[in-house]
Amino acid sequence: MRARRTRARLTFGLAVAVIALAMVSLLAGPARLSPGEALSALVSGDGVAGIIVRDIRLPRTLLAAMIGASFGLAGAALQGLLRNPLAEPSLFGAPQSAAAAAAFLMAFGLSSATSLIVPLAGIAGALASVGALVAIAGKRASLTVTLLAGLALASLAGAAIAMILNLAPNPYIALEITFWLLGSLQDRSMVHVWLAAPFMLASWVILSTQARAFRALTLGEDAAASLGIAIERTRIAVVTGVALGIGAAAAVAGAISFVGLVAPHLVRRAYGADPSRIMLPSALTGAALLLAADIAVRLAPGVVEIRIGVVTAIIGVPFFLAMIFRERHALEEATA
Amino acid sequence: MSGDTPARLQASGVGVSLGGRVIVSDATLSLKAGEFTVMVGPNGAGKTTLMRALAGLARCSGEVRLDGHPLAAMKARERARRLAYLPQGHVFHWPLDVATLVELGREPHADPFTPLSAADHDAVAHAMAATGVTGFADRAITTLSGGEQARVAIARALATQADVLLADEPIGSLDARHQLIVLNLLRRIARDGAAVLAIIHDLTLAARFADHIAIIADGRIVVHDTPERALEPARIAEIFGVTVERFETADGPVLIPSHALGEDVSRSAPPTPGAAPP
């Protein structure tokens, strides 16, 4: 009982942190606006301040929160399904596959960056990658098979991107795609928000309904099935939900990685290992992390803005290595 | 148990094929309330596959009826309320606390939007007390010994309060004391009214604890009878390929395997009909 109340307080605190970071995000940028000015500009939309806050900072803020939440939830869900704290959509090439599909459209001029086809292609790319991973990992979801299949799928996505850049009709497009692939929330508009929002919302709904199945899967697939959990349905729901969230995110912001690994891991330290309890906190933590990262790239001095995808990878990969180092004994046992 | 008690779980002509290979064929078995049945058989005989079919987890031909209803037509949750299954190896993928794990046994009864009811809490408390794990309630499962983990796994299955309990090698990898504790527990669950089926390798323990023994070999149930009649030395030699010494004790028969038949014909084993040298 007391533990439950502590968790509820923590979750409330996380929600407050996300809102606070979103406020800071609306204030951060080269144009200096006071909190009062920013707030009134957000409400009224008048003048230059209105354009800055409503058209430049608001979409960026919303996208950071939405994408962060999608990654946090997708990571928690994939880890729940595969019973593995190292499962992460970007380790399996899901964002990369989504980005490859979207880059293909851009490279060959098949669509503009704000057409509905881009998120659909992104979702298809992510669906292929996550679907293949879950199919190969299979019932037993052994750590070795899962990670090797993920490595192969990520490499395949990398190869696809390389081929697209190689065959791109002109060097400017290739350069543009290269920068886009780094992952950024710069210069996004409300069109991007509306483009991604329905898919992400669907992803959140689908993944949240699987929380109880993840808890039952703690006992393995046979025991979970014997408890009345429809395992096949859970598998399909997770693949679809992750693909919708990650595909839509990659389509509007390029390849952003490792939020789905870091967020659930941080949450687990405070909430315990129960995979059904970490879903909402992981989403909130993901949103907070990406908002913070996006504020940091805007505040960092320098002529060139560091891309947010670069920041998440540069922090996420060492974090991943530290996790492997800490868990190495358990991992050695699991793969033996 | 009287012969006219209706079977809780009735399998008729059950067959399972995996990848074109027949694993189980024509298995007919009935499990009655209050009875503890033990399934024995050599490695690879099809025990686990048959048990998964009985639990409704493996597609099979023939028919399995649970309380008279065809298992295949039952809703998964309905089946889960009446039949609990304990897979081999006591798997716990996340270091959850013991109480949360035992509460998973109430999953088939749970309403998706409400926390555990008073009845759920009662069932969980009862299951934990019966298995002696109440003292571990708040501990992470990973901090417990293998024997303690096995008891938690049984508590989880017990919490469902199902009419039928199927346990696949519940005493595999346990020390001698915990083997006895777990078998006593399973027998007590049967005495309290459930139909219990367990796969066990130790023939002596099977003979001592079971009301009935089902021997499975090459995917078929060769015999389903009382321990005295089922575990005849001649039959054990034929099916398991070992000669056994049988002693009667106050606690029941003791069966000691003495020679592996057909393993190394030139040395110690007596010649057997049908076991051709390699």
Mind explaining what this structure looks like?
The complex is a heterodimer of chains A (336) and B (278). Chain A has 336 residues and is mainly α. Chain A has a single domain, classed as Orthogonal Bundle (ABC transporter involved in vitamin B12 uptake, BtuC). Helices cover 77% and strands 0% of the residues of chain A. In chain A, α1 (2-27) packs parallel to α13, α4 packs antiparallel against α5 (117-137) and α4 (94-107) packs antiparallel against α7 (171-181). Chain A is globular and about 60 Å long. The mean pLDDT of chain A is 89. Chain B has 278 residues and is of the alpha/beta class. Chain B has two domains: 7-231, P-loop containing nucleotide triphosphate hydrolases (Rossmann fold, 3-Layer(aba) Sandwich), CATH 3.40.50.300; 233-278, no CATH class. In chain B, 30% of the residues lie in helices and 29% in strands. Chain B has helices at residues 47-54, 76-82, 98-103, 118-131, 146-159, 176-191, 203-209, 227-230, 233-240, and strands spanning 7-18, 21-32, 36-40, 61-66, 69-70, 83-86, 164-168, 195-199, 212-217, 220-225, 242-249, 252-260. Chain B has a six-stranded mixed beta sheet with strand order 6-7-8-3-9-10, sandwiched between helices. Chain B has a four-stranded antiparallel beta sheet with strand order 2-1-4-5, with helices on one face. Chain B has a two-stranded antiparallel ribbon with strand order 11-12. In chain B, β1 (7-18) and β2 form a beta hairpin. In chain B, α4 (118-131) runs antiparallel to α5 (146-159) and α5 packs parallel to α6 (176-191). Chain B is globular, with a radius of gyration of 20 Å. The N and C termini of chain B lie far apart (46 Å). The model of chain B is unreliable at 274-278 (pLDDT under 50). The chains are: A mainly alpha (336), B alpha/beta (278). At the A-B interface, α9 and α10 of A face α2 and β6 of B.
Q: What percentage of the residues of chain B does DSSP assign to strands (E)?
A: 25-35%
The level of helicity of chain B is 25-40%
Oligomeric form: heterodimer
Q: Which shape of chain A, going by the Cα principal axes?
A: globular
**CATH homologous superfamily descriptor of the largest domain in chain B:** P-loop containing nucleotide triphosphate hydrolases
Strand order of the largest sheet of chain B: 6-7-8-3-9-10
Radius of gyration of chain B: 20 Å
In this structure, how is the largest beta sheet of chain B organized?
6 strands, mixed
Please give the CATH architecture of the largest domain in chain B.
3-Layer(aba) Sandwich
CATH names the topology of chain A as: ABC transporter involved in vitamin B12 uptake, BtuC
Which percent band covers the strand fraction of chain A? under 5%
Uncertain parts of chain B: 274-278
Name the CATH class of chain A.
Answer: Mainly Alpha
C-alpha Rg of chain A, in Å? 20 Å
